Amino acid sequence: MAAHSTSSAMPAPAAGFKALIALVAIGFLAAFYRFAVGLGASTNLSDAVPWGLWIAVDVLSGVALAAGGFSITAAVYIFNMKKYKPIARPAILTAWIGYTVVVMGLAVDIGKPLSFWHPLVMWNTHSVMFEIVWCIILYSTVLALEFAPAFLERFKLTGLLKVLKLFTFPLVIAGIVLSFLHQSSLGGLFLIMPHKLPALWYTPNLPYLFFLSAIALGLAMVSFESIVSARVFKHEPEMDILEGLGRGTMIALGVYLAAKFGDLAVRGNIPAIFSSGKASLFFLLEVLVGAVVPIALYVQKSVRRSAGGLLLASSCVIAGTILNRFNVNFFAQAGPNAHYFPSIIEMLITVGLVSLMILLYRLAVTYLPVFHDQQKMH
Amino acid sequence: MATNNDKAKGVLVDLTRCIGCRGCQVACKSWNERKTGKTTLEGEFTNPKQLNSDTFTRIAFVEQDKGDQPVWSFVKDQCMHCQDPACLSACPVGAFTRTPEGAVNYTFEKCIGCRYCMVACPFNIPKYEWESTSPWIRKCTFCSDRIADGKVPACIKVCPTNVMFFGNRDDVLKEAEKRIKESPGKYVDHVFGKEEAGGTSWVYLSAIPFEQLGFNTSIPAVKLPNLTWNMLGGIPAKVGALVVGLSLIAAFRNRGSSRSDESTEGKEK
Fold first, then answer.
1. Which residues of B touch A196 (CB under 8 A)?
2. Does one domain contain both A263 and A152?
3. How many degrees, rounded to 5, is the angle at CA B184 between CA B180 and CA B189?
4. Distance CA A276, CA A273 (A)
5. Is residue A373 part of a domain?
């Protein structure tokens, strides 16, 4: 059994591992505190800013970070790009863990966590939030089934594995469709407030821009963690795959950028880029860090062929896209009374959730056949 | 969604008549059994500064200068009771309903506390009980219980200067236009709420341009729920197109491949 886990190659619980566990534990304590005293006493949320750090990072960004799951499975199974098969399972794992953490983030954020099941029986099909809840539930289920083979292989349940393989294509297609709906609906949340969200971000096409930027972010996230995993587990990064991923990220960013600025131009909002004060500053920062700089890096073959270069470029995409979600969320609420900076409890819970993601990923790749060489041993 | 009928009520708030006595604020608290808190005045007379979960209506005191004389305007704020409410469409569990009388009301038992109604409302009306561990969304109820009883809302009942004209919404709009016509030059030629956000049950007349009194005049004259329904309504078609499209691409790109995907290892795109 131990033969096909990399635990032998991994140093016994390293300092980083212990730190992760500590951060997760602190996050859980902070969550208990939040449930015990309520949102008012534990957060800096207010009537002026009802959606804060948790919505911007744990939900809006968390879902986008999971977009590698459907992007890679689409490339491998729909477009038959076999080269990327080895990273399909890590990408699905990331997405599944991402969604699990998103659900936990939502549970902390909603005011009545024990009523979380209401959307299952109380339907309002005119609500974007209703669509989002259903997308989370359905896509989490699809991701669990897509990742299930890792468990079945690990415990040698070949019969079940064969049955599940029959559903590979339907699951992949369901995953893509649900991801499209979910990623775009997160942008769709803001369609109802045309006079609140500045013209730099508001467009009827915001759902599509959320979808396009999520693809770029998802791909960047997969290469980011592939490189980091390779360093942590001391194996050679598969540069051929990573080079292709870099090119894919670059193309996705290019499409996103063209769509974003094309939309601004068609709506006559180009002047707003420089005339919107603080919003202009954050918009430019988001575009530069999240798209322009990484494209400039990815076009260079030398960058695409170096792990360090790809790490830098994908970090830019991750930071820039998270900033985009922050911008949309906060500028949509930025009335005259809007002052917000997250409380310590809010930050501890978010840090705890991010640490939990890393911890679960690390446990999964240690004890389950996730990476290509581990799968091959079967 | 909600359509008007002859039962739909409306209120005309004629700001030129308000003297800022805040009787409506007190009557509202008392009828709705809301807590009173200790407040302080900090350089302005508006008190409290914002609506909150215990204050469903309040008078904003707006000070302007006309020549060297200060001029006061008193602006009553409360839920506008939209004809097509953004909060109602935003709520994932349908915790908001619109009564035949036009009141937009909230059901705590359904609410999950996502607060999308607060973010979606064009007038920033729904407020949250942040200090509670079982928090309600709170806002003006149009005194639906009183209206059902054939009475007028508490704030209207108590107003000493007849600032508010209560009736069927159609009659309320006629009254507003009549007042503009009968006193040329007295009012700004605009009934705020007639068109804003697709039309509201509460509408306003003012002698001073609305934007100077803190009204958000950038609220478009469209039914806001349509903006999200444009996306949601298209979902079945999009899902169908994606499933068919993806299946076709998969069939085309995977033609000739054997069922087992391992056997084609190394055969690149």
1. 122
2. yes
3. 45
4. 7
5. no
pLDDT, averaged across chain A:
91
pLDDT tens-digit readout, B87-116: 999 999 999 999 999 999 999 999 999 999
3-state secondary structure of A18: helix
Question: Residue A371: which pLDDT band, with cuts at 50, 70 and 90?
Answer: confident
- Contacts of residues B180-186 at CB distance under 8 Å and 24 or more positions apart, as own/partner, are B180/B205, B186/B16
Among candidates A39, A130, A168 on the partner chain, residue whose Cβ is nearest the Cβ of B135 = A39
- Cα B139 to chain centroid, rounded: 10
Nearest-Cα residue of chain B relative to residue A117: B112
Answer yes or no: do A204 and B216 touch at CB < 8 A. Answer: no
Helix axes A239-266, A307-331, angle to 10 degrees: 30
The answer on A161 and A111 residing in a single domain is yes
Using CA coordinates, name the residue in chain A closest to B196. Answer: A195
Question: Which tokens belong to A371?
Answer: 């990476």
A121 & A28 share domain: no
Q: What value of ipTM does the predicted structure carry?
A: 0.90
Report the CATH number that the domain containing residue A150 is assigned in CATH.
1.20.1630.10
* Same-domain pairing of A104 and A34: no
B69 and A CB contact within 8 Å: no
| B221 interface with A at CB cutoff 8 Å | no
Are A36 and A51 in the same domain?
Answer: no
Cα dist from A334 to A260, A339, A351, whole Å: 22, 8, 25
Does the pLDDT of residue A326 top 50, yes or no?
Answer: yes
Beta bridge partners of B74: B61
- What is the pLDDT, as a whole number, of residue A13? 56
> Residue A112 is nearest to which of B134, B225, B254, comparing CB atoms?
B134
Residues A53 and A163 both lie in one domain: yes
Nearest partner of A201 among A273, A142, A137, judged by Cα = A273
Provide the whole-model pTM.
0.91
Question: Measuring CA to CA, which residue among B139, B95, B67, B118 is closest to residue A333?
Answer: B118
Could you tell me which residue, A107 or B69, shows the higher pLDDT?
A107
More confident position, B66 or B257: B66
Q: Which two tokens stand for residue A178?
A: 């649900």
Q: Which helix (H) or strand (E) holds B169?
A: helix B169-182
> Which domain range does residue A23 map to?
13-44+343-365
What CA–CA distances, in Å, run from A4 to A1, A358, A367, B156, B265? 6, 21, 8, 76, 20
Whether A56 and A128 map to the same domain: the answer is yes
Same domain, A309 and A169: yes
